[in-house]
Amino acid sequence: MNKITPFLWFNDNAETAADFYLSAFPNSRKLRELRCNEAGPLPVGALLVLDLELNGQQVTFMNGGPGHPPTDAFSFSVQCETQAEIDNYWSQLTADGGSEIMCGWLKDKFGLHWQIVPTDVYKYINHPAGMRAMMTMKKMDIATLQQAANQPA
Known about the structure:
Layout: E1 7-10, H1 14-24, E2 29-35, E3 47-54, E4 57-63, E5 75-80, H2 83-94, E6 99-100, E7 105-107, E8 113-118, H3 121-125, H4 128-135, H5 142-149
Parallel strand pairs: 1-4, 5-8
Antiparallel strand pairs: 2-3, 3-4, 6-7, 7-8
């Protein structure tokens, strides 16, 4: 169990979001959940809190009601070894209402922000040409970043 765990507030769709992320990330699972056991702000049996492990990262989701939508001030970064991995996460997370942003950032259909980046992104963008190349991209392209980073300084 992680000592520091992101805790995300959803209006009323935390369970739907959890199912979506569990299908998008390999080696993921539900850890535990808490459901309403008496009448209160949610119906009996409705999900209150759910702990997940998404590809090794523990995350907690809560159905807290309206008023606290996700913001781009918080995002998850997913480091990818291959372009196929970037392409896969990008297509899954932008599907059904998600949107591309810039420089490997996207917003999914639940409003969460993600950075889908190559594992060696720092190496590529440390080179000025690599940084310029990244600044023109929405989804990162490893071959283009590598080519830019290999130019003479």
